[in-house]
Design goal:
- The structure is a single chain.
- With 152 residues, the protein is α+β, with helices and mostly antiparallel strands.
- It is built from four helices and four strands, in the order αβββαααβ.
- It has helices at residues 30-34, 94-102, 117-131, 137-140; strands at 45-48, 57-71, 74-87, 141-151.
- A four-stranded mixed β-sheet has the order 1-4-2-3.
């Protein structure tokens, strides 16, 4: 059972279990909401074992994208889970996104210091805008999670 008591969250740049939340940042960055107490999502450094992707690092962004379907009786909204993995070099990697979502992270520590997530967020946002049929980013996309992933 998950406790809903407020507790001191772990800082974003440390290894955290998936159930821990990072500290709310002072700047208006993607992590400023992710770290808030009302968020309830994931944000951590995650180490995932996968020999095919060993040595790959980057950010996994999790979005929920609303799709509107027009029918005779009115519009219907469907919601799709939309993970985007942005490699440290700046490219979007769909295979890494799939593995990062499907596999559980190990609890082993990491010496990595993640780079600033803002440029990675802009790459992920551009990817979602181009590949999903959006009407409006603010209305159709919910940013639900962020983690820095290291595959080994």
């Amino acid at each position: 059972m998950i406790s809903r008591q407020k507790r001191a969250p772990a800082p974003i740049a440390t290894v955290a279990r998936d159930s821990e939340c990072p500290r709310k940042t002072a700047q208006a960055t993607p992590t400023s909401y992710v770290g808030s107490y009302d968020f309830g999502g994931l944000s951590a450094i995650r180490r995932i074992e996968c020999s095919e992707l060993a040595g790959t690092t980057g950010y996994l962004f999790a979005f929920v994208v609303r799709r509107r379907i027009t029918r005779e009786g009115g519009d219907e909204c469907l919601f799709d889970f939309y993970p985007v993995f942005v490699r440290r070099g700046g490219g979007v990697d769909e295979a890494a996104a799939r593995v990062a979502v499907e596999r559980q992270a190990t609890e082993a520590g990491s010496n990595l210091t993640p780079p600033n997530e803002l440029e990675f967020f802009e790459i992920a946002r551009t990817h979602v805008e181009k590949s999903a049929n959006l009407w409006d980013w603010e209305d159709d996309v919910e940013f639900v999670g962020l983690s820095f992933v290291e595959f080994f």
